[in-house]
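Let's study a protein:

___
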Amino acid sequence: MGKRIDLTGKIFEHWTVLNLHSSGTNQDAKWLCRCTCGTIRPVNSYTLRKGTSKHCGCQNKGPIKHGKCRDTEYVIWTHMIQRCTNPKRPYFKNYGDRGITVCKRWLNSFENFYKDMGPRPEGLTLDRIDNNKNYTPKNCRWATQKQQANNRRPMSIHKDNTSGFKNIYWDKRRKRWHVRIMQNHKRYFLGSFIDLKDAKQTLKNWST
C-alpha cells in the first residue's frame, strides 16, 4: 500500500480540497472539498484524481448564479472557511484549533454570507465582534483596521500582569510594563515603562 498523497489545497475542476475527511489508501481516502458554488462535502480520493468527480452537481443545473468568484467578498468568505477548517493554513491555530467555527448557514453557502453581510465597504474587513465566538451573522461586521486592532485577543501574558488593560503586559524579568498593539496584521511595540500610568497614557494616545 503506497503512501497516501496529500491533496490539501489542490484544485480539481470545481473542487478545492480543504483537508482529510477520513483516512485510507490513495484509492479510498476521502477529502473534505468545497465546490465553487459553496457546497462542502467529502469526496473520494480516486474520483478526484481521475477526474470523474468535478463538482457537487451544481454544474448540471447550469453555471454558478452569484458570479462573484473573483470578488473580494468571495475571497474573504473562502479565507474565513479555510482558517476554521484547514489545519494546513498558518492561521488555523488561532481559529479552528481554538474551536472557532463558521455557522452552517455560511459554511455551505456564499450566497447566504453575502446576503447577511452585504458588499464590503471600501477599506473595511471582516471582523468578529466577540473574538471568542464563532463566525455568525450576529457576531460579524465590516470593520476598520483600527477597530480590528482594538478588538484583538491579548497575546499570552504573564500571570503577574495586573494592568487590567488589553495590550499592556508586565515583564517580570525587567520589571517594566510593555505596550504592544496589532495593526494591519502586524505587531507594534509602543514602549516600555516603569510606571503603569505612563503605559496607560501611551495606549490612550494611540487609541484616540
Summary: Residues 72-143 form one domain. The longest strand covers residues 15-22. The beta strands are 11-12, 15-22, 30-35, 40-44, 125-128, 140-143, 168-171, 176-183, 186-193.
